Amino acid sequence: MNYQETAFQTTDTFNQFLTKTFTIMTMGLLLTAGVAFFIATFMPQLVYSYGLTMFVIIAQLGVCFYFSARFMNMSVGAARICFVAYSILTGITFSFIPLIYDGGTLALAFTMTAVVFASMAIIGHTTSMDLSKFGPYLFAGLIAIIVTTLLNVLFFRSESIDLMLNYAGIIIFLGLIAFDMQSLRKIYLSGLNSGDMGAKLAIFGALQLYLDFINLFIRILALFGRHSDN
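The structure assignment produced for this chain is given below.
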């Protein structure tokens, strides 16, 4: 009975942790969407600034690398600032999206992303299968997609390759959603769940899932956009 009570308390606490993590992730997505639509509506000229785009992309990479490198030692406040900064920078980067896709396409792509994301998150949370063995293949596939995308943009400029990359990207990020959910559970249950570390872990998990959601959304939007008049 004591074991069952402890297991229940642990699961219940983890569910509360997940609620906090998804709340932070959702706030990040809303902030990103708000910034993107604000710039597209009131400052559309910024979308066409090559210098600003390059600066924002470099800043995004800097924030991401800094957060990953300093996560264990930074304060909870600093972790929050990094997450908010990354969400804002991503909103600036994606401010071109409302100018290219119509509202119906955006709504459909977002709804599809939310449904698929939730389904894979539930699978990652509940499955008894150890997904860690798929990690190296998922990350190798992610690197391959990034490299191939850059080559296609710079040299090949092939619509067929772009279409293939979108489908491959969706498959990769579906796997990463389930993988990240299970990894988050393992890290939490390993003991890194108290005090400031627990709060920072919620922000870290929110960023991981935020990145999965954003990248899945972009791939799905690109596919839906092929059928749009825009």
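Interim note for the steering committee: The chain has eight helices and no strands. Confidence is low (pLDDT under 50) at residues 1-9.
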